[in-house]
Amino acid sequence: MVNKSCCFEWIIALGFLLLAAAVSSKNHGNQANDLIDIINTNRTSKRLPQLNNNPGLGCIALQYIKECRGNCSENNTVNCKPSENDFTEIFAPNCGVELPTFGTISGLVIGCQQKHLDPPEAFSRVLIHNKKTLSVIQNKTHTEVGVGIIRAKKHKGPYFWCAFFGSNKKNSTFVLDDLGKGIEQKEGCYSGSGISCSSGERSCNFVSVINCLWTFTFCFLLVGRTIM
Ligand SMILES: *[C@@H]1O[C@H](CO)[C@@H](O)[C@H](O)[C@H]1NC(C)=O
Ligand SMILES: *[C@@H]1O[C@H](CO)[C@@H](O)[C@H](O)[C@H]1NC(C)=O
Ligand SMILES: *[C@@H]1O[C@H](CO)[C@@H](O)[C@H](O)[C@H]1NC(C)=O
Ligand SMILES: *[C@@H]1O[C@H](CO)[C@@H](O)[C@H](O)[C@H]1NC(C)=O
Ligand SMILES: *[C@@H]1O[C@H](CO)[C@@H](O)[C@H](O)[C@H]1NC(C)=O
C-alpha cells in the first residue's frame, strides 16, 4: 500500500522534471531568426519580396555590433563607425566567411537598449527607430538579411540589435566555410545559424531557475513524506 502510493508520487515528480526540461529547452531558441521572421512579415504586408536569411551576413552583423558594444548613447542610438577594412580583415575571418564571396551590403539598422526586449518589441522599438530606419527595412533593393544580437558585457550593460541587408543573388554571397558551418561564435546570436543561442537575457534563465527550484522543492517534499 505504502509502496504503491510512493511510486505514483515519483511518477508525478518525474513528470514535473520533464516539464521543467521542456520549458528550459524551449527558451534556448534563436531570437535573431525570430526578428527575421518579423521583418519578412512586415515586408510582406507592404507587398515587398521576402528576404533570404543569410547566416554569413548575420555573423557579419554580429561582429559589427561586437565592435560597437561600448557605444550605446543615451538616446539608444549607436555611435560607432568601424572602418571599411574591418569587414574583410576582421569580421569575415572571425566568421569564416569565404572572402571571394563577400557581397554588397545595401543597408544596415542598429540600435541598443538598457534592458532586454523580446523580438516583436526589439523590432518596433529598436529596429524601427524612425522613418529612416523603416525605409531601410522596407527597401525594394534588398534580397537578403542577417541579424545579430549581443549584450555589452556578459552579465551587464545594454543590449545591441543589428540587421544587415544585402542585394546579392540569393545563396551565392557571404558563404560560410566548413560546408556552411563557419567559425563557432562564443557570444551573442546571429540569424540563420540553426544553432540555439542566448542573446544574454536574464528573464529566460530566471524562468528555468525558478522551474528547477520548484521541481526540487516538490521532490524534496515527496521524499520527506515517503520517509515518514
Ligand atoms: C510594419 O512596421 C511598421 C513600423 O513599425 C508598422 O507601422 C506596421 O504596422 C508594420 N506592419 C505589420 C504588418 O506588422
Ligand atoms: C543621439 O545622441 C547622439 C550623441 O550622443 C547625437 O549625436 C544624436 O544626434 C542623437 N540622436 C537623436 C535622434 O537625438
Ligand atoms: C566608440 O566611441 C568612442 C568614444 O566616442 C570612439 O572613440 C570610438 O571610435 C567608437 N568606436 C567605434 C568603433 O566607432
Ligand atoms: C534602397 O537601398 C539602395 C541601396 O542601398 C539605395 O541606393 C536606395 O536609395 C534605397 N532606396 C530607398 C527608397 O531608400
Ligand atoms: C537558399 O538557401 C535556402 C536555405 O538553404 C533555401 O531554402 C532557398 O531555397 C535557397 N534559395 C535559392 C534561391 O537557392
Helix content: 40-55%
Count of the domains: 2
Major beta sheet, specifics?
5 strands, mixed
What is the chain-wise order of helices and strands? HHEHHEHHEEHEH
Shape: globular
Give the uncertain stretches in residue-range form.
22-27
First and last CA, distance: 14 Å
Rg over C-alpha atoms, rounded to the nearest angstrom = 22 Å
CATH topology grouping of the largest domain = Pathogenesis-related Protein p14a
Mean pLDDT: 84
CATH superfamily of the largest domain: CAP
**Known CATH architecture of the largest domain:** 3-Layer(aba) Sandwich
If helices are DSSP runs of H or I spanning 4 or more residues, what is the number of helices?
8
What is the number of beta strands? 5
- The proportion of residues in beta strands is 5-15%
CATH first level of the largest domain: which class? Alpha Beta
Distinct small molecules bound, one entry per kind: 2-acetamido-2-deoxy-beta-D-glucopyranose
Structural class: alpha+beta
What does this structure look like?
This protein has about 230 residues and is α+β, with helices and mostly antiparallel strands. The protein has two domains: about 30-195, CAP (Pathogenesis-related Protein p14a); about 200-228. The chain is about 50% helix and about 15% strand. The chain contains eight helices and five strands; from the N terminus they run ααβααβααββαβα. The protein has helices at about 1-25, 30-45, 55-65, 85-95, 120-125, 130-135, 175-180, 200-225, and strands at about 50-55, 105-115, 145-150, 160-165, 190. Strands 1, 2, 3, 4 and 5 form a five-stranded mixed sheet that branches. Strand 3 and strand 4 (about 160-165) form a beta hairpin. Residues about 20-25 have low confidence and may be disordered. One 2-acetamido-2-deoxy-beta-D-glucopyranose binds near residues 73, 75 and 79. InterPro entries: CAP_sf.
